[in-house]
Amino acid sequence: MRNIWVIFQKELRSYFVSPVAYLLLAMFAIIFGFFFWNSLGYFVYIGMQSQMRGQSMPMNVNEELIRPLLSNISVVGLFLIPMITMRLFAEEKRTGTIELLVTSPVRDLEVILGKWLAAVALYSGMLLLTALNFAFIFKYGHPDWKPLVIGYLGLLLQAGALLAIGTFISTLTKNKIIAGGATFGVCLLLWVLEWVSGYETSTWAKVLSYMSVITHFESFAKGLLATKDAIYYVSVIFLGLFLTARSMESLRWRS
Amino acid sequence: MGTQFLKARQTKYAAYATLYIVVIIAVIATANVLADRYNKSYDSTSNKRYSLSDQTAKIVKGLKNGATITYYDQSTHFAQAKDQLDQYANLSPKVHVEYVDPDKKPQVAREAGIKSYGTAIVQVGMKKEEAKSLNEEGITGAFIRDLKNTTRTVCFVTGSGEHQIDESERGGYSRFKDLLGKDNYEAKSINLLQKAEIPSECTVVVVAGPSGDYQQPAVDAVKKFVEDGGRALIMLDPPLKIGRSEIADNNSFEQWESEGGKDLAQRANAQWKKMLAEYEAPPIDPAVDEALNDYIARRKAAFADSNV
């Protein structure tokens, strides 16, 4: 446990000694800030229109503002997650420090968990920035806070799953760009697999749709905590980290 | 060479790692299949927006046979039904939800008798019912109709100026009929003037705001029905007529003048004449008609005509 903590700290620090973390945090805040401003403006416009038409039906802040915004956060995350994970192991391989890492008296699992948790922590920091925007909604409106918490849990689980995949891909190459590009490709594929359910209802389409990371986020965005969706994300996290461990292990017997 | 390759350390490790990965993927896949089948969810919204009512949960969880909800719509619209229909599948592993695009599978849609997009059919065992709407009310209603063998009928009495279930104008009860239909009651009209007897299929008799008195045979029929254990809902309209008078004229002064400048008394006079001219005698039981005429004759004979 202590080793995980040490690796976690080292990894997190390495994000912040380079411009990577600052750049990611700034980009995430700017992009999401634009989404927030745009959605809020539209929400207010629709609200005023319905008031002018004399409609007395109250608008639901959670349903019409927070839910689509949470989906937007996950889209932005899709583009930034490869940048977080691409250097995790590829950098170690490029500089040769991976040899030290696999021969040091630290278990592979501790190394993997330490690095993955650092990536998750950086992403959580990015999510915290988005929470600042939502704080304004609480200041001027009365949204339901529980669905928002569930939505954030979903975002964390989804990011955890994609980060685990990115961590694994990072062990396969010493080139950061390749690691980042491949991670983006795989994550994007896992994203769009859901599209088949839009026009196909066969079993294969259901399986592909189930494998999509976005299918399982829908319930979280609504404020529903569904066991199948949580288990899916935990499964992908486990599989990603398990494959990372096998990949690390193979470094020994392949040499 | 081949044997050496098979005995090589790398080959052994690779085989071991592959097998290990395959086993883990199989375990994960099984866990997800089970999780999908036996899903449980917690609705954190304050108004339980994504939860079905206790009544629906009781019905769906108590299903003894498998049930299928088939939703027919263009595939691009499947998503709008998913929010609602998947909640039923989450309640019980016995409920399956299928989505069919009639444009892609016209044969399937034709066999199911689908006439419009956005239709949901609930099948329990061999019984099939169409959901009257895509909300909980409509879908659970279809489940109830599937599970119930008998239909319940609400009989609306007519003949004494009651509100009519086939009228959709102001004062008409067509919306009431639709709502009853959603709750799986069949609504029909019965005329107690034609036959002073409540049909046996009536579960409830509704006397909806009559504008005239009931004849004794009709009163006796309702009384007998209630005394025999039937249910009756008797509603009376407020005695004051609320709203704009039928003889009031709210047109412009010029129009009123061009139409003859009639005052209230003149318009009222024209109105009763028109009503009398348009009057058609309703169908009436000859015995009741005879009794009425007899009553009129007796009452007329009892008092001399007088203007005082």
Describe the SSE topology:
The complex is a heterodimer of chains A (255) and B (308).
Chain A (H helix, E strand, L loop, with lengths): L1 H16 L2 H33 L8 H25 L4 H6 L1 H7 L4 H33 L4 H26 L5 H17 L10 H9 L5 H6 L1 E3 H28 L1
Chain B lengths: L1 H6 L1 H29 L3 E3 L10 H8 L5 E6 L5 H14 L3 E6 L5 H6 L7 E6 L2 E4 L5 H12 L4 E7 L15 H9 L2 E7 L10 E7 L7 H12 L3 E5 L17 H6 L5 H15 L7 H17 L6
Parallel strand pairs in B: 2-3, 6-7, 6-8, 8-9
Antiparallel strand pairs in B: 2-4, 4-5
What does this protein structure show overall?
The complex is a heterodimer of chains A (255) and B (308). Chain A has 255 residues and is mainly alpha-helical. Chain A has one domain (2-254). In chain A, 81% of the residues lie in helices and 1% in strands. The model of chain A has no long low-confidence stretch (mean pLDDT 89). Chain B contains eleven helices and nine strands. The longest helix of chain B has 29 residues, at 9-37. Chain B is elongated, with a radius of gyration of 33 Å. Strand 1 (224-226) of chain A pairs antiparallel with strand 1 (41-43) of chain B.
